[in-house]
Amino acid sequence: MTKNIYFASDFHLGSPNYAESRKREDRIVAWLNFIEPTCSELYLMGDIFDFWFEYEKVIPKGFVRFQGKLAAMADAGIKIYFFKGNHDMWVRNYFTEEIGMEIISDELIIEKNDKKFYLHHGDGLGLGDRKYKFLRKIFRSPLCQWLFARLHPNLGIGIAAAWSGKSKKRAGADAVFFGENYEWLAVYSREILKKEHFDYFIYGHRHLPMDINLGNGSRYVNIGEWINYNSYGVFDGVNLELKYFKEN
Fold this sequence. Notes:
Largest sheet: 6 strands, mixed
Shape: globular
Number of domains: 1
CATH superfamily: Metallo-dependent phosphatases
Strand order of the largest sheet: 4-3-2-1-10-11
Number of strands: 11
CATH topology: Purple Acid Phosphatase, chain A, domain 2
Low-confidence stretches: none
CATH architecture: 4-Layer Sandwich
């Protein structure tokens, strides 16, 4: 049986409320069951959780079906990579110790079957958005994480949930396609291509599934999100395809 590589992003588990998140979790687990027989590697490319912070002895409650499924897949020999997104940048070592996932902080470059991939969640790349880039550096700093860890989990997670809600209200442009020449991650990818060739640039973060031809055999693929699209990428060893999961 052919073994594929799968890419998914922006599950935002925990948002907007428990009931909706649980429905989405069930759908994601159904997808994982669907891909498991043909999966050799799974790349979870950021914002898997709407918020995540690991205290020394405490993690956010919930998502046990999702985590249990990932553990079973890892135990079966499937390699799983977890990219830090802007909503779950405070992942530390819990998933590595309990599941065996490899944590990726920024970009990851891989080569598969003579195809070269540039992988990144997508936040903080390209020109503009200086305010977020500044905040990203602060939030990712060890000092900021140490200070946040001093807060009681009830308070800390409550503050994070409020911040996440505000960020979603500012994200109304997610469904708007700006055009191939103005999508900032496509522009960023073209700048990289001036220095180094990649067959595929794969990102999440943007929330809008898209597949853009960058020329010279290179493509930009945004794998979308699971609130509206249930979209993902699959590489079968020859071609990369953007797909959409539909439950039976």
